[in-house]
Design goal:
The protein is an all-alpha fold and 56 residues long. Helix content is 91%, strand content 0%.
């Protein structure tokens, strides 16, 4: 394999590793959103409904 082909192969491998890491980070962020943000939004929605219905 030529030097250019070898460099190209290494670059593609590094890109694949980087993409894999980014996917993992995005999954972690998604899990954190599901764990913390969604319950906060639901709590706020319940509070808003109670205020509108006069049962706050």
């Amino acid at each position: 394999m030529s030097k250019a082909s070898e460099n190209h192969k290494q670059l593609l491998e590094e890109c694949a590793k980087t993409i894999f890491l980014i996917e993992n980070v995005l999954e972690i962020i998604e899990d954190l959103i599901d764990k913390f943000i969604t319950p906060l939004e639901e709590d706020q929605h319940v509070k808003n409904c109670r205020e509108v219905n006069g049962s706050a």
